[in-house]
Amino acid sequence: MTSNTKKVIVWTIIFILALFWLVVAGVPFLFMVLTSFKEQFEVLSSGVFALPKGLYINNFVEVITGNFPNYFLNSVIVVGISLISLLFISACASYPLARFKFKLNRPIFGLIVAAMAVPIHVTLIPVFIMTKNVGIYDTIWALIGPYIAFNLPISTFILTTFMAEIPNELEEAAEIDGCGKFRTFFNVIVPLSKPGLATLAIYNSVNMWNEFSFALVLTQSMQNRTLPLAIWEYQGQYAMNVPMIMTVLTLSVLPMIIAFIIGQDKLIKGMIAGAVKG
Amino acid sequence: MGTQRPSLAKQRMHSTRIAATVFLLPALIILFVFIAYPIVDSFRISLLEWNGISADQSYIGLENWKSLATDLAFWHAFRNNLLVMALSLLIQLPIAMALATFLDIGGKKLNFFKVVYFLPLLMSSVAVGFLFKYALSPNTGIITAISKAFGGQAVDLLGNPKYAIYAVIGVICWQYIPFYMVYFLAAYSGLSYEIYEASIIDGATRSQYFWRIALPCMKGAIQSAAILSMVGSLKYFDLIHVMTGGGPGNATELMATYMYKNAFVTFKMGYGSTVASGMFILITSISFIVMKLLRGKEE
User: Fold this and answer.
1) What is the CATH number assigned to the segment(s) A63-275?
2) C-beta atoms of B260 and A118 within 8 A
3) pLDDT tens digits for B118-127?
């Protein structure tokens, strides 16, 4: 066998494997989207991979005119408020950690890094009890505190590394011009950290948009729940109506796909930065 | 000599301290309220017998901890976590590395592949759970459809106590392989092109380059990926809660789902907190060991 034919064979095998994985990764999606355009009993009668008989959009109409917008709005409010607060608080915390020289700098930074490793399920029961005692149980406001807290360590970690790379000269120039620490922060450091903040915004909003455990435990009634739990309620209501559930799934993945298209690089960067903990 | 005035440096230090406190305070308060205090509180509640609702709490000392030590259901769940951890590591990382290598060699031409490979990562765990609950169902599922196309029977992977855990692990891998793929792709882009060129000029083949040069250069990234995968495996909840609820029986029960059931289904807050605290101890010590083993040598 010449080395050329060997090469061709190897590459054919590689390509077949690559196509195989294309099927593995893609087919569940295809199943989801195709099924969402089917009528309730069409799945059983015409087979799983048959194309829908027609463009049956009643599922979408029914979902969108039902409770879905309410769940969607709840998610938008929770993610919006949590994200803005999170970015502000973590930027504030990162500034002294990255650029001040004081004794407690390293220990506090170490503490924040350690907090990244805490599994959220350990705090579920105490936070549930706390939420009940404060009287915000079963409201969307109950979610905001935990959402900020559990994304704060990683965000502060990433922003601190980012801010540490801002050249000293810019800060010194601001100081010589008479800026105090606070004006320096708002007028110099924050504008220069915009790329880091943007990465964090996309990364964290995906996390918060998909968060499930706290939403499950801290809310109870349908009108106060967020999107990941919407699917749950639809399952109860339409237990056997698979196409309807697939419609809800398709609609809830849509914002993520849009986020991916808009900020593909930032999303990936955020995920990787989020991964390289400690 | 007049009165001693604080030196300029000291004044500066003082103002720095004040500014640092103001900037750090909101973050520290939030971390204390939602992370530090709950951890301590969890241990406190683990000493109680309490349903979480009534004022009727009774202090029972270490009774819950004694029950936990001999609770077969908990250790079964822990064993499942370890199984998920081992198989995730063995399946996810090699496939992710193979996909990343393929995409790295192909470059821009393979963008379509890259996007499709990435898709699973865009779904929330809950959505993935629901999708596969139906995709693996014996009536309307994909596997059944394939089996029937070849003249086989309906397949009920999730309903079979023997296979359910492996089906769940398969879905977990499906969801997370794209993540490690992207991670390794980033590691590839960090390798310098000169090294590749030099090795090819020196007569190395593609596979020699991969095994002898690329892989050793990416050792750090692979170690981090292994740590992430192992530590993450101990915390799974969403996907299993949705897909199987720990069942059939307790075949796919994990520590987190077991904790959830105790605390929020049967309302044994005291024992639920014991499970949670036990989880905290196990996860923290395993994470510590894993990090020491994989990272310690470098320092």
Assistant:
1) 1.10.3720.10
2) no
3) 888 888 888 8
